[in-house]
Amino acid sequence: MAGNDWINSYLEAILDAGPGIDAAKASSLLLRERGSFSPTRYFVEEVITGFDETDLYKTWVRAAAMRSLQERNTRLENMCWRIWNLARKKKQIEGEEALGISKSRLERERARRDATADMSEDLSEGEKGDANNDMPTHGDSNRGRMPRISSAEAIEAWASQYKDRKLYIVLISIHGLIRGENMELGRDSDTGGQVKYVVELARALGSMPGVYRVDLLTRQISAPDVDWSYGEPTEMLTPRTSDMHEMGESSGAYIIRIPFGPKDKYIPKELLWPHIQEFVDGALSHVMQMSKVLGEQIGGGKPVWPVAIHGHYADAGDSAALLSGALNVPMLFTGHSLGRDKLEQLLKQGRQTREEINVTYKIMRRIEAEELSLDASEIVITSTRQEIEEQWRLYDGFDVILERKLRARIKRGVSCYGRHMPRMVVIPPGMEFKDIASHDGDADGESEGNDDNPANPDPLIWSEIMRFFTNPRKPMILALSRPDPKKNITTLVKAFGECRPLRELANLTLIMGNRDDIDEMSSTNSSVLTTVLKLIDKYDLYGLVAYPKHHRQSDVTEIYRLAAKTKGVFINPAFIEPFGLTLIEAAASGLPIVATKNGGPVDIHKVLDNGILVDPHDQQAIADALYKLVSDKQLWARCRQHGLKNIHQFSWPEHCKTYLSKIFSCRPRHPHWQRRDDQYEDSEPDSPNDSLRDIKDISLNLKLSLDGGKSEDSGTVGNITGSADATAANGKENLENAVAKLSKGALGPAEKVSSGERTDHNSHKLPLLRRKYVMVIAVDSVVDADLISIIKSIFVASSDSMSGSLGFILATHLPVSEIHSLLTTGGMVSTDFDAFICNSGSDIYYPSSNSEDLIYPSELPFDLDIDYHSQIEYRWGGEGLKRTLVRWAATLNSQNGGKEIVTEDVEHSSTYCHSFQVKNPSLAPPIKELRKPMRSQALRCHVLYSHDGSKLNIIPVLASRSQALRYLFVRWGLQLPNMVVCVGESGDSDYEGLLGGVHKSVILKGSFNTVPSEVHSARGYPLSDVVAFDNPNILQIQGYGANDIKFALEKLGILKK
Q: Region Disordered: what ranges (predicted)?
């Protein structure tokens, strides 16, 4: 790395006085070039190589400037000891990581064996065979399965096939500065290639036949240090082509900026995590509103839901998972850059421990977001095979071999026993080629410039670059990237500087972002740029290397064109390049390429065949490849023509065609209940005495029995609530059958209820729409007696001035039977509440208002929302998951000498909640350790411990109490900003979700809060990484008396003072 030069230089200075070293040669020879062995030389070659410590470099500069020889030598000696300690630390970290990788590999193999064993009873011979008999790998080219767009006629055929579809697609990319024109690419690490990719993808999709509207959701930023345009709520993306399909009133592609996080501050992506829930709520409101608008325009009055929600990067993936779960629509994910890969690279450098990396990059929160994206995604889109084979393989939630087996079983119609794996699809990014026709000929006639055509002067950026060169007519070697160590720019400069024939034949242009002052750049970027400038001075490259300070995004095409005009070459020497969009841009301008052989350029070169791949660590190979292309004119022309001939395979229409084909392959999902909103339009919105208990939708009219019942009908209910043998699919069917049976008396024998129809019985009033505000009681950290007191205090605080306008929801990990017992103990009835969120968010019940509707005396007065189950059943493992969990519990108990650590709680389990009792929370594994084997076996679920650690609930992956609240918003129109969630100082495992979002939160502080179980202390990241406690919507109060609650409601604006 670049830092080795200065390490060598100051160690040479220390050793100048040593024996056997000629002082005249010491300054010009690196230690590795000296002939005799010495411990110091070994130290430099074997230990120091790879370090790039900016702080040590600064110390060396100060030490070298000291006049006192004794003090100078003392400082240098201390620096040697510092480096030695760093080297020891690096080796220790490498050893620990090697052990971790080995352990992870063994765990993955064990999980794969367990999953295969569960499915082995009906494995086909093809699945039992070796990898060669499995389905094709993810990275196999799509060309064998789907013809490419290779002509205008093919594009027209595609258009005619899909023109009648009117799709609504939502893209999410929340960090960086995003706008449609004059993108500030390179301004910071968050505003790079991803910004350009998502904007152009949205623009291209909006121009495709069959796509009516595309929304790109991002963050609204109204900060003084950024342009005002980033604060505009909506920006329409102007199509690049005039050949558009028929447009409608709200059609096209738009950037929608959602306000969340600090209102007047632009913050880096690492600091956005505490505000994700707020973004999700804002995005949900927008999508709901837009779906209704589109329904009026093109849906015949019915909402037009998004056909897919596509998250870009980990933060947007986390958001897309929650949003797709709330709306029940398919999710797509593109990682762009992956956290586990970055963590592995940083650990290899040895400069930081895992804990230090996590503090800086919030890397564990990012990795968990990527794992959740794997859990929730139908399709994961990658740019290259390398991303799948080298990066996604690091994740618990993805295994190439197991995915192939599952895909084969699905294709053959064989059960996967609740296992699911996202489909990995390689779709290279697209590009616009509006300027390519002007370069499609030979470049021989272009070298004379525009001297004969003064009316069309050269672009200004050309003169900015040419002023650096003594001979600007020489071929230009062009590199374009941020001054980042991983981009390997310093090796390129060394290769150019040390190859005299190359220097004599060509110039070098380095476009390294934009800068005003090197001292104002980040330490990493300034270090690389400083090293580049020193190398230019070292090799005396003045007049041969250009490094302009500024360029606009619109100048990039002109820079490529200038390089092609001089018969130059484009080079990307990065150590690893995930894709390499600049290589495609260069090829479209007629430039041959030299590129790293690590990553995406391999795939690009296979298609374009327009250059040479090199080892980025081999300086001589880089120099040889560049010299070969600029010196051999026939080779240069051949590479140029190959690139121009094949470049259309990377066009945006081609990308979008494949993209839409993958979306069409997803099973359509969307909210599908019958709303009958037209029946309620004339009702009074502020009627004070209506609540969810007033509705008699037959889908909610399911009465529960405490003892399971003995008759035929109650036996069906027992199967619903407690059967351990019913799968998720059978459970839903049983629920529907039970609804039909239980409603016979009300509907009459001639009427029929099926899963396809919902019959409203006496439903002349809509429920929670009548409530202006809703109080959600989700206090987990107190004993039952205190919880009862808190509920009564809330009732009293709101009874005077808010009677009828404030509704109540109880959200807890308890099953409904225990909630009933709690209410009975406290002298309350179910109709005191509007809804109950039970079993950690896997069930929603409503109170039954008429006791005469109860069929049996032992039944509970609650109505179950079956439609909510259809919302959360996505990827629910059912019986296969339960079988794996029971086996896990038995293994855990046996590992602890047969002691009962975790036991199955059959009585309190339900179709969508597998419950376990935790006998010894101190020996129970933390959530992250339990998620890992489940994900490794392709079982997707949400693992939750109760506050005291005595209860373990496993529920569907996109179910939680906070998601249940979003469901109530989507179904009943409950306004999230008018919701107040009351919690304790700590809570169950989903506590963090209850604190974020646009709703108000009240934290009850005091000695009545019990200490959380030890099992919560082993979370993967601190709570401050995901909760913004300085949010004005979060209020902390002491105590839970009626006056305390009233004060909180007044301060939050719910009650008037």
A: 110-146, 436-456, 672-693
